[in-house]
Amino acid sequence: MTPSFRHFLPLAAATALALSTASIALADEIYATNGVAINGYDAVAYFTDHKPVKGSDKFTATYKGTTFYFASAAHRDTFAGNPEHFAPQFGGYCAYGTADGHKAPTEPQAFTVVDDKLYLNYNDHVMQTWRTDVGGYIKKANANWDTVKEQPAP
Questions:
Q1: Per-residue pLDDT tens over the stretch 32-90
Q2: What residue ranges in 6-55 does DSSP mark as E strands?
Q3: Rounded to two decimals, what is the model's pTM?
């Protein structure tokens, strides 16, 4: 006797639910405004220009379900070749907040590049606090990230 189609429906529904839940969790792993990371700023420019540079919706790449904008096709291609390197640490959430155990949004101008990694902060004031003990905060944030990344987006 062959199983009827209706026997597969519960499995299909459970699979669809698991996939949609995974997509939601993945999207929350990267801080985004309207689906765009770093408020539309170019992640590669922090390394090449040493400052925040506004990206364009003409040059985009998707990483972990989130769209990143770039100022040029060259920056987009550089990012696409190694997104783990160029994407901000802790999903672009505030590095200081992650060290403190919670997700917080960030502003593109409040950044620090340390050991060739990009860290963003909530604002300039928090960035100044972050810079008083960058190594210590990075250590705390790294220890907290696995738990913090599971939290809902702020």
A1: 999 999 999 999 999 999 999 999 999 999 999 999 999 999 999 999 999 999 999 99
A2: 32-33, 36-37
A3: 0.82
Structure tokens given for 150 = 């599971």
Collapsed DSSP state (helix, strand, coil) of residue 54: strand
Instruction: Quote the CA–CA distance of 108 and 121 in Å, as a whole number.
Output: 8
Distance of alpha carbon 98 from alpha carbon 148, whole angstroms? 7
Strands 36-37 and 32-33: antiparallel
**Residue 41 Ramachandran class (φ > 0 left, ψ -120 to 50 alpha, else beta):** beta
In whole angstroms, what is the distance from residue 29 CA to residue 152 CA?
A: 9
Q: How many helices (H) and strands (E) does the chain have?
A: 7, 6
User: In one letter, which amino acid is 14?
Assistant: A
DSSP string across 72-123: SHHHHHHHHH-HHHHSPGGGGS-HHHHHTTS----EEEEEEEETTEEEEESS
